[in-house]
């Protein structure tokens, strides 16, 4: 059987204007980046404001396992299937980060016959958006140290600099560093560190901004340091927001690519969901909603992370009201949640699947708390049996959700038509009544507690005194009425990556909190999750190389 890369490479891609035509985007609004990818002009987007919105469908998943779930693959397959059954559908995805592409995960553009292409370019430098975000982040970092070097006119306390440099790569050696060594000419030595670019607040601002003016305003509000008497210093105080906006001016325009079947795909922005808010850009989503009958979008990792943040942060900020949610699962992954080792997933084990549905059931029930109808997509593997699927179907029927077996990996959009019809039925029923999980008036610690108890089913949260004082300082500074973005392991409802299934009564330990004033939320870092990942023992990069003919091997 051909690999994902071989399938993508064998595809006949359509010129990007043909893809734009499917959404009614005129040639003058299409800014090509080669033959098969383009940016959509901002002035064209501005002119769409009065158009009605299409229906928004969220695709999310169970707690991920090494067995694989195929959330992006299902997003692509569903978009293709909707187009096959006569809907004008667009897909909105995040851009892949180089960190996981060369680390553990590999590429992130779907798989099999449900991919977005050109896959290699999307997984590498694409249109340069992440490089622009990294440059804007690090320009601000340089301007902070430069201001201190030239007399420190803003009175920045070097011990209270919160802004970190970033890099779009997994590099644990940069988590904590000492900078400005080497003498007077290099500035004042201080402790510093790097985050991965997808965890930068610039990425969050980029993805939540409605337009260029909103982008610059949000950049300016970002808090980077404090003075000795506790006064906040912002990017605007440093007069960095204008130059940062210039670096991001072209990047902020949404990217248009295509699926293997020629469905339009807007791939733009890419915050991680375990350490950031996990959703593609508001600008791309809103563009899709103005041009398509149905927009299928994905939130990162499980519904407890990307899904919750999509609904509590992105939808609330952008005024979006999703019509339906799809939760992706596999028989293999549910077996792992049911206690089966990865090496023993092949043989039929209905009881293990039944036990594993506890994880799926919790994700579905959680999404129902937001007022959304939920359809379950079971991404089919050849080793699955009818009895195993029946166990999933019965478990979902008991909580008012339909489970549908999908073969889009092997069959493309044709393999997800039943899923597409179920989603359309939910949209047309009009029963969605979206509401966030918590009101913004709650105290910050109470918002964290609400998510922990309602979504993770924790018994309590652990907030050290230093963290509690910091939360209070955020509230005293006028930032109490913002959502919270919890940085936590993706592998478990708890903060312990080894606890699978559906644990209850555990404690969520809040290790650190950070204020993202420009993005408009507070980040709560829980357990041992890192904002700068490291490479695994055998990084994917070791298998990536160029053939003699210049083609890439090993990327996916």
What would your notes on this structure say?
There is one protein chain. Helix 9 crosses helix 10. The chain is an alpha/beta fold. The strands form 6 sheets. Strands 1, 2, 3, 4, 5, 6, 14, 15, 16, 17, 18 and 19 form a 12-stranded mixed beta sheet that branches. It has a 4-stranded mixed beta sheet with strand order 20-22-23-21. Strand 18, helix 15 (386-397) and strand 19 (402-406) form a beta-alpha-beta unit. The mean pLDDT is 95.
Would you tell me the structural class of the helices and strands? alpha/beta
How many angstroms does the end-to-end distance come to? 14 Å
Which descriptor suits the 3D outline?
A: globular
Measured as a percent range, the helix fraction is 25-40%
The major pleated sheet works out as: 12 strands, mixed
Counting H and I runs of at least 4 residues, what is the number of helices? 19
- Let me know the average pLDDT: 95
Strand content: 15-25%
Number of strands: 25
User: Which consecutive residue ranges, at least 5 long each, have pLDDT under 50?
Assistant: none
Provide keyphrases for this structure.
25 strands; 556 residues; alpha/beta; 35% helix; 19 helices
In short:
Helices cover 35% and strands 20% of the residues.
Give a topology summary.
Layout lengths: L3 H7 L5 H7 L7 E3 L5 E3 L1 H5 L8 E7 L9 H14 L4 E5 L4 H5 L7 E2 L2 E4 L1 H5 L5 H21 L6 E6 L3 E3 L9 E3 L10 E3 L1 E3 L4 H8 L3 H10 L1 E5 L4 E3 L6 H8 L6 E5 L4 E4 L14 H10 L2 E9 H16 L5 E6 L1 H7 L12 H19 L5 E6 L6 H12 L4 E5 L1 H4 L5 H13 L14 H11 L5 E3 L2 H12 L7 E4 L19 E10 L4 E6 L18 E2 L5 E2 L3
């Amino acid at each position: 059987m051909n690999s994902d890369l071989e399938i993508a490479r064998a595809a006949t891609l359509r010129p990007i204007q043909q893809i734009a035509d499917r959404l009614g985007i005129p040639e003058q609004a299409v800014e090509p980046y080669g033959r098969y990818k383009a940016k959509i002009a901002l002035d064209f987007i501005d002119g769409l404001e009065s158009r009605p919105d299409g229906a928004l469908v969220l695709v999310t998943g169970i707690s991920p396992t090494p067995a694989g779930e195929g959330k992006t693959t299902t997003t692509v397959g569903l978009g293709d299937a909707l187009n096959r059954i006569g809907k004008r559908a667009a897909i909105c995805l995040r851009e892949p980060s180089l960190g996981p592409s060369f680390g553990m995960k590999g590429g992130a553009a779907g798989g099999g016959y449900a991919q977005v292409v050109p896959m290699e370019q999307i997984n590498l430098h694409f249109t340069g958006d992440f490089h622009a975000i990294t440059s804007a982040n690090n320009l601000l970092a340089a301007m902070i140290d430069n201001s201190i070097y030239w007399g420190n006119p803003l009175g920045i306390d070097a011990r209270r600099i919160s802004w970190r440099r970033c890099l779009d790569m997994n590099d644990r050696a940069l988590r904590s560093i000492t900078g400005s060594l080497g003498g007077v000419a290099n500035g004042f030595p201080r402790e510093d560190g790097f985050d991965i670019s997808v965890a930068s607040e610039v990425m969050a601002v980029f993805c939540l901004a409605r337009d260029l003016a909103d982008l610059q305003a949000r950049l300016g509000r970002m808090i980077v340091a404090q003075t000795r008497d506790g006064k906040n210093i912002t990017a605007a105080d440093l007069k960095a927001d204008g130059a940062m906006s210039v670096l991001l001016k072209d990047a902020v325009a949404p990217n248009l690519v295509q699926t293997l079947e020629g469905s339009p795909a807007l791939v733009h922005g890419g915050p991680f969901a375990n350490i950031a808010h996990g959703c593609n850009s508001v600008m791309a989503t809103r563009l899709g909603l103005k041009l398509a009958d149905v927009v299928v979008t994905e939130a990162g990792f499980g519904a407890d992370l990307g899904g919750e943040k999509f609904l509590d942060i992105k939808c609330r900020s952008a005024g979006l009201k999703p019509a339906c949610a799809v939760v992706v699962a596999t028989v293999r992954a549910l077996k792992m949640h049911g206690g089966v080792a990865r090496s023993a997933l092949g043989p039929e084990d209905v009881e293990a699947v039944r036990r594993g549905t506890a994880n799926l059931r919790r994700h579905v029930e959680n999404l129902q708390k937001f007022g959304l109808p939920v359809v379950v997509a079971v991404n089919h593997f050849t080793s699955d049996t009818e009895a195993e699927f029946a166990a999933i179907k019965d478990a979902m029927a008991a909580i008012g959700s339909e489970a549908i077996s999908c073969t889009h990996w092997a069959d493309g959009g044709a393999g997800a038509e039943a899923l597409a019809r179920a989603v359309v039925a939910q949209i047309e029923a009009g029963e969605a009544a979206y509401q966030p999980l918590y009101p913004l008036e709650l105290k910050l610690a109470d918002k964290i507690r609400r998510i922990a108890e309602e979504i993770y089913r924790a018994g309590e949260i652990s907030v050290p005194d230093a963290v509690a004082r910091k939360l209070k300082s955020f509230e005293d500074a006028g930032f109490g009425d913002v959502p919270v973005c919890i940085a936590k392991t993706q592998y478990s409802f708890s903060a312990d990556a080894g606890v699978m299934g559906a644990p209850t009564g555990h404690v969520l330990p809040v290790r650190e909190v950070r204020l993202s004033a420009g993005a408009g939320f507070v980040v709560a870092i829980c357990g041992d999750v890192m904002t700068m990942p490291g490479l695994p023992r055998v990084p994917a990069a070791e298998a990536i190389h160029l053939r003699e003919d210049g083609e890439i091997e090993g990327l996916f």
